[in-house]
């Protein structure tokens, strides 16, 4: 989905994440990160300023491991908008990433 007057498209959000990953991989060639697609259920208002991307970590607790409470995390890219077209709202969309394994 591409952007229109009311909605910011997931295509543009994905491309911002991919550009961010390309810059990070150029800075550190050993990292080999790749961006996946954002959740197709996400719907955000049109952004009035340029999108920005940054690393972000999502944390949660895992209770499935032998009755122990384990704190887990994973790295994502947060593509953020600091001001939407209709109001002073802001949003961020988390784009999953994975690190390619080296042969």
Itemize the secondary structure elements and their pairings.
Layout: E1 7-8, H1 10-27, E2 33-35, E3 44-45, E4 52-65, E5 68-81, E6 91-99
Antiparallel strand pairs: 1-3, 2-6, 4-5, 5-6
Task: Label this structure with key terms.
single chain, 103 residues, alpha+beta, four-stranded antiparallel sheet, two-stranded antiparallel ribbon, 1 helix, 43% strand
State the low-pLDDT regions, or none.
none
Which structural category do the helix and sheet elements fall into?
A: alpha+beta
Residues in helix, %: 10-25%
Report the C-alpha radius of gyration, rounded: 16 Å
| Strand order across the largest sheet | 2-6-5-4
Please give the alpha-carbon distance between the first and last residues: 35 Å
Element-by-element helix/strand order: EHEEEEE
Number of helices: 1
Shape: globular
* pLDDT averaged over residues: 88
Biggest β-sheet description: 4 strands, antiparallel
How much of the sequence lies in strands comes to 35-45%
- The tally of strands reads 6
């Amino acid at each position: 989905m591409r952007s229109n007057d009311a909605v910011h498209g997931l295509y543009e959000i994905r491309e911002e994440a991919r550009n961010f990953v390309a810059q990070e991989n150029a800075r550190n060639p050993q990292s080999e990160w790749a961006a996946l697609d954002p959740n197709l259920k996400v719907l955000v208002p049109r952004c009035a300023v340029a999108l920005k991307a940054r690393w972000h970590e999502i944390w949660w607790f895992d209770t499935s491991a032998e009755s122990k409470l384990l704190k887990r995390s994973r790295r994502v890219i947060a593509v953020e908008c600091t001001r939407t077209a209709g109001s002073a709202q802001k949003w961020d969309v988390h784009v999953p990433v994975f690190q390619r394994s080296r042969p």
